C-alpha cells in the first residue's frame, strides 16, 4: 500500500486542485493560487538565560493578497516546517475569503519549544522575530495574530517592537492583543465561539438536538478549552472527552469542564484529572459521540484511523486535522464535516473587528462583537451549505467551502487584472 501523503503543503495543494477542477478554473488563476506570493525565512538570535546565544529559524509566508492585506497567525512550535507554514498561509486565504472579510492569507512560525523557555527568553524571541520580519508586515500589508503556543502577551511584545521600529503606536499591525493595549473584547474565545455558531447551524440542518448531544474535544489550547466550555454553556451538550497534547480523560456520563480548566491551570496538564478514565489522543478520536471537535494540530484524522471515527458530525477547530484520504473515508461513512477554515474562521473574523477598531480608535462592546460574529459565521456557513446542496452529494462540505473561497479570490484577481 502506498504511504499516505502527510506534507501539509502538498495536502493543501491537492485540496485546491480538486476544487479548481470542480469549477473548471482558469489555468493562470490556478498557477497563482497553488503557490504563495512571497516567502521569507529569517534568523532569530536570542541570548538565553544561560548566557549562550541560540539562533532560531523563523518564517513568514504571504499566500495571496488579492482581496486585501494578508492575515494570519504566528506559531511557536518545535516541529514547525516551512511547508507547514506555506500550507497554513494558503488555508488562511481560503478562511478570510469564506468568512468574507477583506483580507488575504499569511502565516508565520518559529522553530522553538516555548514550553522550555523562560518568559524573558520568549519576549526576546518575539521581539527579535518582529525585527527580522518588520519590513514585511504592517497594518496595511500583513497583520499577524496568535496561533499554536502564542498568546496575547506575545502579541503585545510584538506590537510594541513594531511600534518602536516605525516610530509611532501601531496597534493595527497585530491582532489578538490584550484588551489594555488595543485588543478587542470577545477575541479570546472567538475561534471557539465562531465554531459554536457553525455547529448550531449544522445541527439545524441535520436535525440534531444539541441539548442531547455528546461531544469529544481533542486539544485544550486557544480553541479547544473554550469549545468544551461553550458547548456546555450555550447548548447544554454533554462533554464526554477532552485531551491535551499528552493525554485525555473520558467519562460517558459527562465531565466537569470548569474543574478540568482549573486542574489544567494548576498542574499544567490534564493527565490525572479525577473526573473520568484515561484516554489517549488517538482513542478520543474513535469514541462513539455525536460531535467530534479536533482542536489541536494537523493530520490527526488519516487513512489509518478515519474508518474508526464514530461521530455523526466533525467540527474542525484545528487547522488541517484531516487528510484528503481521511476526507474520502468520512464522506463514504456519511459523517457531516464542518471544515477547518470555515469552522475556525471566528478567530480571524474577530481579529478583523479588532483591526477595524484599532484603525478607528473606537471600541465596541462584547455584545456588539458577538452579534457581528454570529452574523458573519451564519452567512459563511450558509454560503457553503448552499454550494454543498447545489452539487447534490457530489462534494463534501470541505470541497464546497473551497469552491466558495477560491472563486472569490479568483474574481478579485481577475478584476485587478492579475491574469
Ligand atoms: N491563528 C488563527 C487562525 O488560524 C487566527 C488568525 C488571525 O486572527 O489572523 O485562524
Across the major sheet, the strand order is 10-9-8-7-11-12-13
Overall structural class, as computed from helix and strand content, comes to: alpha/beta
Low-confidence stretches: none
Radius of gyration: 20 Å
Count the helices. How many? 14
Hetero compounds: glutamic acid
User: Which band does the percent of strand residues land in?
Assistant: 15-25%
Reconstruct the topology from this structure.
Blueprint: H1 8-22, H2 27-33, E1 38-47, E2 53-64, E3 70-71, E4 74-77, H3 82-98, E5 105-111, H4 119-133, E6 142-143, H5 152-166, H6 190-206, E7 214-218, H7 224-235, E8 238-243, E9 248-250, H8 257-267, E10 277-279, H9 281-285, E11 291-294, E12 313-315, H10 324-333, E13 336-338, H11 340-343, H12 345-360, H13 366-390, H14 397-416
Parallel strand pairs: 3-6, 4-5, 7-8, 7-11, 11-12, 12-13
Antiparallel strand pairs: 1-2, 2-5, 8-9, 9-10
Helix pairs in contact: 1-3, 1-14, 3-14, 4-5, 6-7, 6-12, 6-13, 12-13, 13-14
Bound molecules: glutamic acid (GLU).
Amino acid at each position: 500500500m502506498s504511504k499516505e501523503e502527510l506534507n501539509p503543503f502538498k495536502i493543501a495543494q491537492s485540496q485546491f486542485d480538486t476544487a479548481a477542477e470542480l469549477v473548471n478554473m482558469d489555468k493562470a488563476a490556478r498557477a497563482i493560487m497553488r503557490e504563495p506570493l512571497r516567502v521569507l525565512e529569517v534568523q532569530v538570535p536570542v541570548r538565553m538565560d544561560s548566557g549562550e546565544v541560540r539562533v532560531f529559524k523563523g518564517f513568514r509566508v504571504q499566500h495571496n493578497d488579492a482581496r486585501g492585506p494578508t492575515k494570519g497567525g504566528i506559531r511557536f512550535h518545535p516541529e514547525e516546517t516551512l511547508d507547514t507554514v506555506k500550507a497554513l498561509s494558503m488555508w488562511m486565504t481560503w478562511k478570510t475569503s469564506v468568512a468574507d472579510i477583506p483580507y488575504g492569507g499569511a502565516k508565520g512560525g518559529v522553530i522553538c519549544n516555548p514550553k522550555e523557555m523562560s518568559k524573558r527568553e520568549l519576549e526576546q524571541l518575539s521581539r527579535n522575530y518582529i525585527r527580522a520580519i518588520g519590513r514585511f508586515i504592517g497594518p496595511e500589508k500583513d497583520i499577524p495574530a496568535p496561533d499554536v503556543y502564542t498568546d496575547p502577551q506575545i502579541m503585545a511584545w510584538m506590537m510594541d517592537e513594531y511600534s518602536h521600529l516605525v516610530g509611532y503606536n501601531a496597534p493595527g499591525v497585530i491582532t489578538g492583543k490584550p484588551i489594555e493595549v488595543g485588543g478587542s473584547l470577545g477575541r479570546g474565545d472567538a475561534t471557539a465561539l465562531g465554531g459554536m455558531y457553525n455547529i448550531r447551524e449544522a445541527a439545524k440542518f441535520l436535525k440534531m438536538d444539541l441539548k442531547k448531544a455528546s461531544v469529544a474535544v481533542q486539544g485544550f489550547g486557544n480553541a479547544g478549552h473554550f469549545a468544551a466550555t461553550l458547548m456546555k454553556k450555550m447548548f447544554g451538550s454533554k462533554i464526554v472527552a477532552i485531551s491535551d497534547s499528552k493525554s485525555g480523560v473520558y467519562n460517558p456520563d459527562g465531565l466537569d469542564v470548569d474543574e478540568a480548566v482549573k486542574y489544567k491551570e494548576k498542574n499544567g496538564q490534564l493527565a490525572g484529572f479525577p473526573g473520568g478514565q484515561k484516554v489517549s489522543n488517538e482513542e478520543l478520536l474513535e469514541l462513539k459521540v455525536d460531535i467530534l471537535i479536533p482542536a489541536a494540530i494537523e493530520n490527526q484524522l488519516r487513512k489509518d484511523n478515519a474508518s474508526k471515527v464514530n461521530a455523526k458530525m466533525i467540527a474542525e477547530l484545528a487547522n488541517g486535522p484531516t487528510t484528503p484520504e481521511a476526507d474520502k473515508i468520512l464522506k463514504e461513512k456519511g459523517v457531516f464535516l464542518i471544515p477547518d477554515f470555515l469552522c475556525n474562521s471566528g478567530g480571524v473574523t474577530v481579529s478583523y473587528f479588532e483591526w477595524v477598531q484599532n484603525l478607528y480608535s473606537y471600541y465596541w462592546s462584547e455584545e456588539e462583537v458577538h452579534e457581528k460574529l454570529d452574523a458573519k459565521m451564519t452567512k459563511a456557513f450558509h454560503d457553503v451549505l448552499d454550494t454543498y446542496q447545489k452539487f447534490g452529494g457530489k462534494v463534501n462540505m470541505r470541497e464546497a467551502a473551497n469552491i466558495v473561497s477560491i472563486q472569490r479570490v479568483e474574481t478579485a484577481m481577475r478584476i485587478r487584472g492579475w491574469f
